[in-house]
Amino acid sequence: MKQKQYLCFDIGGTHVKWGLVREQGEIIEKGYFSSQQANHRIILQGVREKIIKFSSMIEGIAISTPGFIDSSRGYIEHGGAIIGFNQFHLQDSLEQEFHLPVSVENDVNCVALAEKWLGNGRDLSDFICLTVGTGIGGALVLNDQLYRGHAFRAGEFGYMITQGIQGNSPLKSSLNGSSSLTAIRKKYASYKQLTLEEVTGEKLFQAYDQHDAFARELIDTFYQSLAIGIYNTTSIINPQKVLIGGGVTGRPTFINELDQALHCVDTVFHVDIDSCHFKNDAGIVGALAFFHAKYQ
């Protein structure tokens, strides 16, 4: 019997990834388009064009997007990087236009759902999913269920303060302020008098490997802050494992280097860490996992 097909979107501040996906999670066709510096009008235009193209082939639309999201009704309270999505009824808007069922879920929650469904979280009842990229994101799976919190803010580990408060802005001492790739790229670019565009994450880690003193200082602090964040969360939740996602996990030595930093901090809980199974397709697969949970 032919499997049903769904159109899935993973919306980000730089690109919108899309995939035509069979009901068991197999991606048939995929691509991406630019989100034009997180321009919500450009994003919605691109989403609508893809829906029109595939509408005769699909049974529904599944969306992963940043922000604080009431996924029960597909309402985006705060759109994160997509400012124009604040207080936006995305599910209602698309359902009224295309007469297809639509689901909307937070992007990192979708990563966790992808791992729980078909990835490295399949055999785990309790785990943390942490994504490291432009910012630090997180999601919690407890007792085999995604935990969202009463105001849809659970797992926002990037806001966790991991250093002494500096000046009048506590967020500068948060994981996002100290350990996101954006934060350390900015510090390195300023120190070396380079533009931010010249300092990619890959080039920064290359400088680290070449024993650039300032790069080593920044990245050692990056690992230490991440380790403190993991320690803090595991001391409260006591998960079986922490799964790490994001482009930085493409570095072959990343998990080992982070584990070494964690062992320096954590002498009590000894949580296992691993990379996520899904890489760039995690949001697409996880969006479909949530669609299934919502409608089936």
Automatic annotation (TrEMBL):
Q: Which Pfam families match?
A: ROK (PF00480)
Q: Which GO terms describe its molecular function?
A: kinase activity
Q: Write out the entry's keywords from A to Z.
A: Kinase, Transferase
> Which SUPFAM superfamilies would you find in this protein's record?
Actin-like ATPase domain (SSF53067)
Family annotation (InterPro entries):
ATPase_NBD (IPR043129), ROK (IPR000600)
Please, which domain of life does this record's source organism belong to? Bacteria
Q: Which residues are in coiled coils?
A: none
Similarity-based family: Belongs to the ROK (NagC/XylR) family.
Write down what this protein is called.
Beta-glucoside kinase
